[in-house]
Amino acid sequence: MLPIPNPDHSQYDAAVEAISNMDIPALQKIFANQENFDHVSVKVILFKLEQVFKQLKQNGDKKLKAIPGYCEVCNKGMRGFRFMAPKAKKNLTLIFEVKNDKVADISHCGTFYTGKTTKEYFPDVTYKIYTDEYLGFEKTNSYQILMADCTEAMSEFDFEKPQILSTEIVTTWIKAYQGVYFDSKHYANCSGVVTFRNLFDLMLQINMYLLAKPTIEEALNSYQEAWLILEDVFENQLMQWLTKVEHLFTDIEEYDQPHDEKASSIALLHTFPTIHIAMNDFTPVDNFRKQFANLYWTNTDKLADYFEKRQREEGNED
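User: That's the sequence. What structure does it adopt?
Assistant: Structure tokens below.
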């Protein structure tokens, strides 16, 4: 275990040293007699820092280099440190509010000045404080019922054991919890609700991919077959193919692409750490997206000529 900061130091100095060492037990001892900061509980902040430390340690960092500075905008003049993780190539930038020799608040800062240009630093790793994590948030009956519903929805998946999801599993789950999704919009920035809504959006995406995959595989096969045709005929076939399957490309482009090729899974967006729930192979969807985009944008002039020719032919028929 990393050494506990010198108890003779001020609480502020001790906290900075513990954060530099990414030492949660030390921080727990430092704030053992303090339940809350100004806006959130000590427990919440330490949990957020612990998640960040885990991420940085996974990249091999054991200690963070603390660069002093201050906030330039939101909390102008408030001092803090940019904690640099050289192996992860990330920064954790924190400012500290100190009252009566005690740390009254710790928060992330996005407008931090150290005297050096931002080019000399790594990108920031951040954490988010959700609405229901702030002190004073009223946990009404409707909120508690909603949280229970969100927890129930999440519990239907074993995040430790990703599985191949069928259309039936996905559509049944969506139908069961679409009412919860609709009701949750009023609490969309609350911790458990955010995770549930991300999962619901992801299930919609997976459902789209599951439904589109057979049609996309057919479209890819028809494209491959067209290569067997003579070149002068192929160009016309290609224009027909692009026109015919454009709606598929438009549909799947409405969604972000969270496909993790290394894990062969779909990752739950906007969560830390990453959660995997599906082991479906959506490689055909990826291949179709890339192939269509490449062919479409390299043949825009030919497509324009093709559409113009079709309009003339349709006009002649009338």
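Confidence is low (pLDDT under 50) at residues 1-8, 256-274.
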